[in-house]
Amino acid sequence: MIPIENNDIAMILKDLSVGYASKKVVSPILEEINLKLPYGQLICFMGPNGVGKSTLLRTISGIQKPLSGQIVIDGREVNQITPEAMAKSISLVLTDQINAGNLTAREVIALGRYPYVSWNINFSKKDLKAIEKAIKLTETTSFIDRKTYELSDGQLQKVMIARALAQDTPIIILDEPTAHLDLNNRVAVINLLKKLAENTGKAILMATHELDLALQTADRLWLAGFNAPIISGIPEDLVLNGAIDKVFQLKGYDLRTGQLEKRSLGKKVNLSGQGHEYLWTKNALERNGFEIDSAAEHTVSFSLENDEITWQIEGEGIAITNTLEELVIHLNKLLKY
Ligand SMILES: Nc1ncnc2c1ncn2[C@@H]1O[C@H](COP(=O)(O)OP(=O)(O)OP(=O)(O)O)[C@@H](O)[C@H]1O
């Protein structure tokens, strides 16, 4: 494997231990963390509930002290960096329970410039340019002058990402930026972050539970399991070497196909064809307990004409147009289910 060059590294975590300490007890949550955060990559930080993702993100963003070990940013240890310099290095996006009061989306995004503006908040041309660039990149223009309490969760989430962009830091850290979003917005947010890492060279680290999206988009995963060091690797390696299975102990989800495991009721049918019609026919059959088997007695095929799909159960003289529901009913009758 080609080693990552040191000047491509935004942050190094050395023998880091994170957790909570009171006067009486020390409770380590994640230990022996040795990781590098490279520039220009989107890293998805994954692991089961309560494993310590937020704890680590808060620690490396400087809002919580490490229990031991080192966090090195751009060659300097974090405890030697002033809070002002930290604010120019890392922006943190916490998307849960956002309370932006009476501010408009534009005002929230402008807050991202706080490390750069003087106490009387005089925006320079550079500040205004950074704000406009953030608005453009996140496509927030259409609701930019609305109060934040008038925005949907997805719009608000984009505003918080825009604020981090306006802060213009080489590192962006996000804690579950796709929580509460619909599928389109989840895909939009993760694609936006991927594009930003690629086009701006920023190091972007996000905690997420979106296994399917992360497998398809992230440049790298950090995988945290209970009582084990965090593993770092590209998604495909972590699927094939079993690391993901081990960490999540997936039940009912087949990682090799990225789909829920199908229950077979012993009904076998052969399916011929290709394309997305094939995939959705297969989905309907498997979801209804059929197993696709080329040696099965009955074969389903389909043809396409004028945007209509017609399925046939070969040799049975049955033709069904545009509804898989009926196909399943016929097959169940044929196989006496
Ligand atoms: N302020 C705190 N004091 C003590 N323990 C805490 C504190 N905050 C969190 N914890 C504990 O630390 C552990 C890790 O919590 P954390 O929120 O970091 O996990 P997570 O991986 O982000 O979880 P999730 O996926 O559910 O968001 C949990 O056992 C939690 O109860």
TrEMBL record:
The keyword Endoplasmic reticulum does not apply. This is ABC transporter ATP-binding protein. Pfam families: ABC_tran. PANTHER family: IRON ABC TRANSPORTER, ATP-BINDING PROTEIN (PTHR42734:SF21), METAL TRANSPORT SYSTEM ATP-BINDING PROTEIN TM_0124-RELATED (PTHR42734). It comes from Fulvivirga sediminis. Residues 13-251 form the ABC transporter domain. The keyword Transcription regulation does not apply. GO terms for molecular function: ATP binding; ATP hydrolysis activity. InterPro entries: AAA+_ATPase, ABC_transporter-like_ATP-bd, Metal_Ion_Import_ABC, P-loop_NTPase. Keywords: ATP-binding, Nucleotide-binding, Transport.
